[in-house]
């Protein structure tokens, strides 16, 4: 294989109760990336479209990952990478993660599939660390494994792929305001009461059980976050209104995607998803804030190969 | 139905990572209770064997539950209750919960099955409140629903029954030392770091996923408690040694059952369970502390009817 074109999905991390532990991958939103073997050794990012990001591989999420992989697994060729960002960085939909995970996947293909998905996740985490300051795994694991993923442990890294009920849909709104991950982390409590922690982990258990058993009511009941959402929601304009209206329109639940500002909802079936989509759109129509809407299936496959030769 | 004899199981609450949220029911250990319709209205506890507990219905876990049920659902008959405690109160195996849950189940049978399992759990929680000071649901829900149960929410009460892999076995040791629930609660931290909470809820998610998918390795990896066990284990003599030896002998994991002093382990299959049983027994043989050993399947049914007429 000398050339590879892939789709690397956008991801929703946290998923209400599962702060820093849960993620899910989207079907219709993500980056398109190409990887081409070259005679000159090393990594070159030759083109980035769709967003203003550094071409210098040493400071680009995808570049950092690719360089680390070649250091671990030296090759007698180089790789040119192009990235088309299919959505805006800073949305809370794992933009750096999509590029980092995509790079891990793509470079691995050209290296003859030398690494496991867990190792790819570890490489991709280097891209997260380089761009966000934290080697967080929830977005990159969801992009690489697809579906819902649970980061069960960091030391050692352990990723669990959770089954996804077939009718689950994601509707999300990305208001065009800036929420820096750093700021979103700064508002979090360092300590929480044991009582609140118990409430939260009971909901994590409920959500995981609901996903395994296709129990949409249990999923809905468990999509509750009493710790992170209350601390962060003021950073996102009209969060409460969007959430309330979405649930009124039939959404199973709603929350902050990653560190925001995107607000995600989970819905059962296309009809409800479309109704929730319109409701959220109407809610934001008169707010004097630009926004993008998303409606997507859950991407159960993860990163997809679009073309090779 | 004028008479009913039941078995109400002992239960392991918390199950390592799931403090105040998870419970499981045992097959071979529990209370035997009878319920007999009488002409004189009211609840009378006519006999308790196997433990020294009050016969006065107003202060007995089973009595409190039965009285509350008759208040909610008046009957033109009375009920005589006998209780044979099959194991020692204060063991950390939900002794008051077995009697409270058993009373809820038995009285409901004589009332013509008027209440749902969720309502029975709510009644049984009154017995827990009367005897332990807290209307905790993890033990009573496991006794009533059987198998593994998750108390997903208290307000409103929501219980989720989690599937149980067929080869799962419980081996436990009950050292004959007293650990008061009140003392075991007093050593708990009121606040924990968000970081530790994330670690814990990721393990709760892993455990629930492992139970759903028969993934014994995932169950083993997830049986970790970084919050409650470190705070409590000094109350239980030789806890670390028992845990280490049990895991060395093949146990999936070990932890404190409820608020102790019983130490439980989960094992895959009878052979490993027997080997873990012997190992723990040997560990405690020279400790100058009396102890009971338990080896049990998980009781997936909950409370069982032994006889009626």
The class by helix and strand makeup of chain A works out as alpha+beta
Describe the largest sheet of chain A.
7 strands, mixed
Low-confidence stretches of chain A: none
What Rg of chain A, in angstroms, do the CA atoms define? 19 Å
Measure the end-to-end span of chain A: 6 Å
| CATH topological fold name of the largest domain in chain A | Ribosomal Protein S5, domain 2
Indicate the percent of residues in helices of chain A.
Answer: 25-40%
Question: Average pLDDT value of chain A?
Answer: 96
Q: Rough shape of chain A?
A: globular
| Total number of distinct structural domains of chain A | 2
Report the portion of residues of chain A in β strands: 25-35%
Q: How many H/I helices of chain A?
A: 10
Domain GHMP kinase N-terminal (chains A, B): 65-147
Family (chains A, B): Belongs to the GHMP kinase family. Homoserine kinase subfamily.
GO molecular function (chains A, B): ATP binding; homoserine kinase activity
Domain GHMP kinase C-terminal (chains A, B): 208-284
Quick gist of this model?
Chain A has 309 residues and is α+β, with helices and mostly antiparallel strands. Chain A is built from ten helices and twelve strands. Chain A folds into two domains: 3-163, Ribosomal Protein S5, domain 2; 168-297, Alpha-Beta Plaits (2-Layer Sandwich), CATH 3.30.70.890.
Please provide a written account of the structure.
The structure is a homodimer of 309-residue chains. The first copy, chain A, has two domains: 3-163, Ribosomal Protein S5, domain 2, CATH 3.30.230.10; 168-297, Alpha-Beta Plaits (2-Layer Sandwich), CATH 3.30.70. Chain A has ten helices and twelve strands. The first copy, chain A, has helices at 61-72, 95-110, 117-132, 138-145, 181-186, 194-212, 216-222, 228-232, 239-248, 270-285; strands spanning 3-13, 22-38, 42-49, 78-84, 148-154, 157-162, 168-175, 191-193, 253-256, 263-268, 291-297, 304-308. In chain A, a hairpin with a 6-residue loop joins strand 9 (253-256) and strand 10 (263-268). In chain A, helix 1 (61-72) runs parallel beside helix 2 (95-110), helix 1 (61-72) crosses helix 3 and helix 6 (194-212) runs antiparallel to helix 7 (216-222). The longest helix of chain A is centred in the middle third of the chain and has 19 residues, at 194-212. The mean pLDDT of chain A is 96. The A-B interface holds A 17-22, 150-153, 158, 160, 162, 188-194, 197-209, 212-213, 218, 221-222, 227 and B 17-22, 150-153, 158, 160, 162, 188-194, 197-209, 212-213, 218, 221-222, 227. Strand 8 (191-193) of chain A pairs antiparallel with strand 8 (191-193) of chain B.
